[in-house]
Automatic annotation (TrEMBL):
Belongs to the LDH2/MDH2 oxidoreductase family. The lineage of its organism: Bacteria, Pseudomonadati, Pseudomonadota, Gammaproteobacteria, Cellvibrionales. GO terms for molecular function: oxidoreductase activity. This is L-lactate dehydrogenase. Gene3D superfamilies: 1.10.1530.10, Hypothetical oxidoreductase yiak, domain 2.
Amino acid sequence: MSKRYDVREIQQFASEMFQRAGLAAVRADVMAKVFLQADLLGFTTHGLNRVASNLEWLLNGQSRRDGEPFVLADRGNCFNWDADFLPGPWVLTRAIDHALERVPEHGVVTATIRRSQHIACLAAYLPPIVEAGYVAILTCSTPAENTVSPQGSRDPLFSANPLAFAAPAGDYPLLFDISMSVTAGGYVARAQREGGKMPQPCLKDSEGNISDDPAAFKNGGSILPVGGADHGYKGAALSAMLEVLSMALGGYGRADAAAKGDDEANSVFLQIIDPQAFGPRADFLRQAVALCDLWENSRGDGDSPVRVPGQRAWAMREKQLREGVELYPSIMQDLEPWSEKLGVAMPQPLNS
């Protein structure tokens, strides 16, 4: 059974480990909050699951502990930063703060970031934006990563590019964080670690054979784009769009030889939209709420109710904030050696 932990205690635990790894307390708190937010929303592969790798990057120098991003361009309503391997959750949170300060004046603020260390779960950044009444579009790509093959090709080309979106819509926001591949790399890695298969044949081995065996991916294979073997041209097109928004607008990516050595560093595209820049907020909410209500109340195919993106994640977040966060079993197993190494006591679960 998965164990639940007090939200404040688990966030403080992660923050203290980041501080022992060399981050200032303010930055460590931001990192811990972002990773925890992912687990609160139910994104278990990219939340506290990524703390260990980020600690490793800080200690071995792959992540820059201090300093600010370099401003490459800034027109007020849009800006481009070079993070130079600052920790992803911290630098993206800083970019969001800047955008939120500017959006009341500009209505729409767009930002790109190059060479950010891995930013983990995109959905984790959305709650403060949507709670402020704004619409958010967030995506990223990884110039050094080739894991997703285009339709009709056996060669991996794209990274597993995610797209996250959030909009206010009544009792819960319309919110999603989806990969442009059939599955995310984190789930492939988890299946291989646990000796299991994928839920469906979503991988392609190096010879072009479709497979549900994670070993096919590890041995020079690829993940299928959204749409799978039959309609993967749709996911490949979307992957290309997201790489243009993040890499091309940011001015750094696959065309640069240096990018091949950037490991998991991300290129990021962020856009925050104030609905009131286009008309009364009430008009926007009326349309957004109507859409979600129609979706939620549509007839289901079976016994399960129709689920609107964001409905379950938001309810899970509220429940876990009240009752404690439920962590995937392997997360604390992976963090225990770091707890011993850094001298930070492990938090005790609320349930035995």
